[in-house]
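Hi W., the flavin mononucleotide complex you wanted:
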Amino acid sequence: MSLCLKRKSIRHFTAEPVAMPVVETLLKSAMQAPSARNQQPWAFIVIRNRQLLDTLSTMSPGAKPLARAPIAICPVIRPDMPAPKMVQQDLAAATQNILLEAVQQNLGAVWIGVCPHEDRIAFVREHLPLQVGDTPFCLIAIGHPAEDTTVTAFRYDPSRLKVID
Ligand SMILES: Cc1cc2nc3c(=O)[nH]c(=O)nc-3n(C[C@H](O)[C@H](O)[C@H](O)COP(=O)(O)O)c2cc1C
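Structure:
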């Protein structure tokens, strides 16, 4: 089965740390994502500090998995890109690559929405050392799964498809 069909959001993790070489593997996949004009408008903040993860988990109701994760990655949008209207799509591609690489590494992960919610962007800016002009795109809670990783519901729906010959 493909990585895409094996991926699901994992929100509970064991206390086992995620080794830095594995984090680098996730980031290699992130930076291999396609981007408009190959502008690569990203930077990534790796958060391993327990207290900071706990603080970030209060950003929104959906951010709670961060309180159970040993590590998080914050993909960040850099300013002044040649195709600025495309940067969110570029970051989404990089984020999805991290989620898929996590499956490959037998890790679990969940995408936690930040951008374009202004209150969440401000909250993350308050707590992470972002460079001037940077915008946090999302937070990804990552760890060794402490819940069943088996995908049981498949969403393929042929009625969503129109073929034009
Ligand atoms: C833009 C975006 C924002 C999301 N935000 C959250 C979130 O804040 N908290 C959360 O637990 N899951 C979040 N998710 C994960 C979705 O809830 C999840 O992908 C969806 O329910 C489908 O489930 P699956 O990932 O297991 O297939 C988000 C996903 C996306 C793409």
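The mean pLDDT is 98.

W.
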